[in-house]
Design a protein that fits this description.
The chain is 72% helix and 0% strand. The relative contact order is 0.15. The chain is mainly α and 463 residues long. Helix 4 runs antiparallel to helix 7, helix 10 packs antiparallel against helix 18 and helix 13 packs antiparallel against helix 18. It is built from 20 helices and no strands. It has a single domain, classed as MFS general substrate transporter like domains (Growth Hormone, Chain: A, Up-down Bundle). Keywords: Membrane, Transmembrane, Transmembrane helix.
């Protein structure tokens, strides 16, 4: 463990700094816009713009890294982030900020892709789980530190953006001084969303709703806290307690997930989130202590939807297809993360701050009902699908999933367009429909071999 920390120390430190800047940046945006009297719709829209940039940046970042290399792509992206953040201090126009936030998202996800590529390339099958765990811890810890750093700026002055820019600039130092060789960029797996929707619809729906909840938390939970009488420092504490609780809940949730029915776990978690958040609606002017206890319980549940759903999906998809599966799951989460702040912000404009809690409860109840409806079809049939803890702020950079110990990149066929077309044809055009959860034997490696062998045999026969 110590050896891994020392070996990857510069990369982990860069990840910590990048996440710290992100945590401070998004928290400041929410609180400062609220202080300036900007509507919650605009707060949500500006945070959603960042997530939209993250989604767009995956393809752009992959091309940039492929054209100029990892270090140049990282340096250029860091420079763009610094310029865009500082430009916000010079141009206090929210419509312009919308565009700047999209560009920041594109550049930041490119930085994440570079860092994750390095970790993936330099790790091996024996230490990937530990490397992945430290990545998750440093990323989550950075978010918490960034959120808590707002206490050094009680007036929410524009200089906070300078601190974000400094954090983004400091990210360059560990990368510039690293002695590790540049990694090889892996080919991107094509996203056959129709195929995965038919194979694993429940995890995709849960992740979509989980993205809606998570992004609304990072964009509007601070607004909710501030509107309910908490100061900027208390609002930052409100966020950090939830994130920390979500991080600590990963391990006990993983223990339970590997021993009990995962659909039942998701059903309990979703309805549990709705129940845990209800006191914030029912109690009249709850104390700070009570609010912290409630938001901690909410964090324990809402930040485990992602790893639970990924584990559930891996139960029903062959190991040979999990790189492509990870991309599909991440896309579903990212779409939800882009839409969540917009919907929640609009609801808060119409119904007040408490509509944030109503929104979370609504998403959780819909999730629970959908999972309950699919419960009868739950029959896991794939091994090596254990629960793996995930970072509490999931960035849509698919490279990190190559570190997932459940994925074997060397055996994965997701990037083989020809084979995946055959699999897609099998899944979408089979006479026997795939059940809502289980893709029966169409996704087993032996079927790929059988399909290819049959094709070769047919060609030989025709000749």
């Amino acid at each position: 463990m110590i050896k891994i920390l020392s070996s990857f120390g510069s990369l982990y430190f860069a990840i910590f700094l990048l996440s710290s800047g992100t945590g401070l940046y998004n928290t400041y945006m929410s609180l400062r816009l609220t202080q300036d009297g900007i509507s919650q719709s605009w707060v949500g829209l500006l945070i959603a713009a960042y997530y939209f940039g993250l989604v767009l940046g995956v393809r752009f970042g992959h091309k940039l890294i492929g054209n100029v290399g990892h270090i140049r792509a990282y340096v250029a992206s860091a420079a763009v982030v610094v310029v865009m953040v500082l430009a916000q201090s010079l141009i206090p126009v929210k419509e312009v900020w919308l565009l700047l936030r999209v560009v920041v998202g594109i550049a930041m996800v490119t930085q994440y892709m570079v860092l994750e590529s390095w970790l993936s390339d330099q790790s091996d099958v024996h230490n990937r789980g530990v490397v992945f765990s430290f990545y998750m811890i440093m990323s989550s810890l950075g978010i918490v530190v960034g959120q808590m750093s707002i206490r050094f700026f009680p007036e929410l002055e524009i200089s906070v953006l300078n601190a974000v820019a400094i954090s983004s600039s400091l990210c360059l130092i560990p990368m510039a001084l690293t002695k590790r060789a540049s990694p090889q960029l892996q080919s991107q797996a094509p996203l056959n969303m129709r195929m995965y929707i038919r194979m694993v619809p429940v995890p995709l729906v849960v992740l979509f709703l989980g993205g809606c909840i998570t992004s609304a938390f990072y964009s509007l939970a601070a607004v909710y806290a501030n509107k309910n009488g908490l100061t900027a420092n208390q609002s930052a504490l409100f966020l950090s307690v939830s994130v920390t609780a979500g991080l600590l809940a990963q391990w006990p949730m993983g223990y339970l997930s590997d021993r009990f029915n995962r659909l039942r776990m998701l059903r309990v978690s979703s309805f549990g989130l709705a129940l845990a958040s209800s006191p914030l609606l029912l109690l009249d002017s709850p104390s700070l202590g009570m609010m912290l206890v409630i938001i901690a319980c909410m964090g324990c549940l809402q930040f485990t939807f992602y790893p639970l759903s990924v584990a559930l999906a891996n139960e029903h998809v062959s190991q040979a297809m999990r790189v492509g599966l990870s991309g599909a799951l991440l896309l579903a989460f990212s779409i939800g993360a882009t839409l969540g702040p917009i919907v929640a912000g609009r609801l808060m404009d119409y119904g007040g701050a408490n509509m944030y809690i109503v929104y979370v409860m609504g998403c959780a109840i819909v999730m629970g009902l959908f999972v309950s409806k699919s419960h009868a079809n739950y029959h896991p049939n794939i091994e090596n699908a254990q629960y793996v803890p995930m970072a509490v702020d999931v960035s849509p950079a698919p490279v990190v999933h190559e570190l997932d110990p459940r994925i074997d990149v060397e055996k994965d066929i997701s990037t083989d367009a020809q084979v995946m077309e055959q699999v897609k044809d099998l899944v979408l055009n089979t006479e026997h429909p795939v059940s809502p959860i289980i893709p029966n034997l169409l996704v087993d490696e032996q079927d790929f071999e059988w399909t290819n062998h049959r094709k070769s045999s047919d060609n030989s026969t025709s000749n």
